[in-house]
Amino acid sequence: MNMFASILSQSRNTTFWMPEQASTVAGEVDWLFYFILYICYFFFFLIVVLMLGFVIKYRKRPGVPDHAAPAGHSTALEMLWTIPPTLIVLFIAYKGIRGYMDMAVAPPNCYEITVKGQMWSWSFTYPNGATPAAPTPENPNDVAIPELHIWKDQPIRLVLESTDVIHSFYIPAFRLKKDAVPGRFNKFWFQATRASPKDDKGNYIGFPVYCAEYCGTSHSEMLAKVIVHPTREDFELWLADASKWEDKMTYQERGAQLWSMYCRSCHSVDGSANTGPTWKNLYGSKHSFADGSGFPYQSTEGWTADFADENYIRESIYYPQRKIVAGYPAGQMNSFLGQLTEEDVKAITWYMKSISANYTGALPSAPPQAPGGQPAPGEQPQPPPPGDSQ
Amino acid sequence: MSAISTPGQLDLTGTPHAPGSNYLNHTRGFLSWALTLDHKRIGLMYMVFVLSAFFLGGIFAMLLRTELIARGPTLMATKTEAWNLYNHMFSLHGAVMVFLFIIPAVPAILGNFVLPMQLGAKDVAFPRLNLLSFYIYVLGGLFFVYVLLSGVIYAYTGYQMPGGFGLDTGWTFYTPYSSSKSMSGVIPATFGAFILGFSSILTGVNFLASIHTLRPKNMGWFDMPLFLWGLYATSVIQILATPVLAITLLLLIVERWIGVGIFDPNLGGDPVLFQHFFWFYSHPAVYIMILPAMGVISEIIATFSRRHIFGYTFIAYSSLAIALLGFLVWGHHMFTSGQSALANVLFSLITFSVAIPSAIKVFNWVTTMYKGSIHLETPMLYAIGFIWMFSIGGLTGLFLAALSVDIHFQDTYFVVAHFHYVMVGSMLFAFIGGMNYWFPKMFGKMYNEKVAMFAAILLFIGFNLTFFIQFVAGAHGAPRRYAEVPVQFVSHHFWSTIGAYVMGVSLLIILLNWLAALWNGRPAPANPWGSNTLEWQTPSPPPHDNFPTSPVVTDPYDMDRWRFVSDEEGWVLTDEAKAAIAAGTAKVGKAH
Prior knowledge:
The structure holds 2 protein chains of 2 kinds.
Chain A: H1 2-8, H2 26-57, H3 75-80, H4 83-104, E1 111-118, E2 121-125, E3 147-151, E4 155-162, E5 167-171, E6 176-180, E7 186-191, E8 207-211, E9 223-229, H5 232-242, H6 251-263, E10 297-298, E11 304-305, H7 310-318, H8 342-354
Chain B: H1 6-9, H2 30-34, H3 39-67, H4 79-118, H5 127-157, H6 177-181, H7 186-213, H8 226-258, H9 271-305, H10 312-325, H11 341-369, H12 378-401, H13 403-409, H14 413-443, E1 445-446, H15 449-475, H16 490-520, E2 522-523, E3 562-565, E4 570-573, H17 575-583
Antiparallel strand pairs in B: 1-2, 3-4
């Protein structure tokens, strides 16, 4: 059977019909795919050849009278095209169910990773409690693509959750997909059979992951990658390093990361309209509020903002209902008090500065030395910490 | 002139321009149409509105395919705007095409026009109900017009009309996106679909009552044309499944409006429950779309092969089998949703059972052509195209019914291609084929045959170019409803978009050809194709009461009763057939 499968699936890499195979179940799925495909070829060509053959052979010719055979009926013929197809589909159903049971029943020694879907990004929480950041994209206009890191030949169990709407975690190379449904945990498992290849620079080329359940505006940018390390040691090295991601990013990079994880379903950064105001040129702007007032804004906390400044932004994140920007409905945004730390808010503010024409000062060029240690703008650039290859 | 042989006196080569009134001209004025109870006029009014909806849905399709012709924003300046436009376009395309075009097209246009005449009757059982269901359809359609306008107004002025703007949930309205996140017009759109459901139910009731009560005395159940079997099976689904959709959409409206918490997990609800409710209707709805289309194909294949349909009873029963089994397979839309493994296994098994009656139909059609005398006129081209499309659409269903393979294919372009081959390739080809088949009867005019055949072939090429490549993209994992084209699928999408443009051009040619025929088409004979069903045994277009004299019921597929008269460019009863009518020996049940 296995030899048959390998002939049918032609090679281990991409074929005309199927993407590369990289999980233990992919071979079985592809075997059934090709089996059905050849059944389809057979019946399709049978039907089309008969049909076109009859059209040519029995076509009405000019000047020749109609010559149709008398009415036909044959129970034997009806049985011929009822019973064999029934047996074939029963066999296909059996193979499909068998393959599915292999996907559904996880072995006992799985390494478990929590996958959280939200509009429109994925985040992965490892057993050590860390939720590593997505690598910063080379082009700042691109959306950061988070990575799920695992290692080869290890059963992995994913626990899927969603904080907002239904998403679906789909890894074509593994032939697997499961919906992330709010209000329940969906689980599935897999075991990678191929380590991720590396590009010229030595970076892993991940297997693509797509969100496969429509989830709103940027559904098509809710992407991820699966990076399969060759060994567990390699994976653990990566995890130890990636778990401390906050320490290795500048504030604005960290802010961009947080935006991607928490804010981008409502706030654009390119000026386009969305549920909430765009962050482009927000810092330093003097917009008016829904109640008709505007800047300078006297807060109940005792400070005054002449324009959208650090205090105003912090208040908008922690107490979003205090002031609503004109043209936007109240009650849309929840408070992030307790979810985002003061450091996070600081990072978001720096990110807003970095995308605002109203801010002309310098930006932090290196990660803060220690929590709370905000480098002043214009400070001497510091060499990146060793090991920071992002 | 003997008193008993009245049908034989009919000049069946047709004298459409002879003095005398037909249903189109026997009364005049707007109100004579708006308040008509004539099933033929109601069918034509449906045609105007359903084709308008098809045109709109087609515009949406062209826009969404254009957005996908290359990576990045194509139609708008920024990504967010382009993605939003695409999301609204694919949602409106799906909703308008499904609720306003595919579901009503064959039953409401062709069914309304043909069903009473195939029964030899003057009208449907409940003509007033028929007019009511038309106006309910128009009312439901207005809600979608409102949704569209609200989107256009928002896009140009930023003003939000009550209920939201546009529609960006997909035609499936999945919760909780539709109930709590989307800013679009979910309530007007679902309420429109809710109203359209009543139109569908009333038409179904009407057809069931008509087939049960209006059949002539000597037309038994198995003497009916197969088109009526298709409509009968469709009507059964319409009246059993549509109420479930109505309740589901009402629940969704209440959920979105006042947050009752049936589907919202924050309030203890279950979003997957919505999917169960929705697909309990919407999977059978696929068979609402395809069963009447199969009926049309049975008529065309037999007529243009000049041969009695093969395996009549198997085709008739397979329609009923598809209708009933179609109710038991909805869970195959939720294989990845987290429903139990046992449910997945059972739904997979039952889904395969639908393959068998579908295969039976295809083999019977092909066998009907065996030793026929095949006339390759436009409707037959569409029927051949239908068998091609339906074979691909049906066979690819095997991949999706196979549980392990579907886990890979769920929500990819493989699914998109599969259901477009069934719902567009098959259903649309049957519909346009049927329109070309009955067009001479409807309007008493012949369209330009060469242009029609050219458009049919062009549409076939365009369709396969658009959708076949989507199977390949989907098998490689291209996810559906993606506004941004993943890098590896750029060329797939490019060719698919080119194919869509070819389809658009060919559909315009088809429309213009019909309009040109109305303008100056040559007069149609009573029976231009030599079919033996009853609607051809009256002039084209038919008089107000359908038949000048009661037609004599014979086997609907006894093609030998007709011979072609080239002077008239139409078919007339043979002398034997006329003699049999005169002698009272013309009977049903002769051929099977």
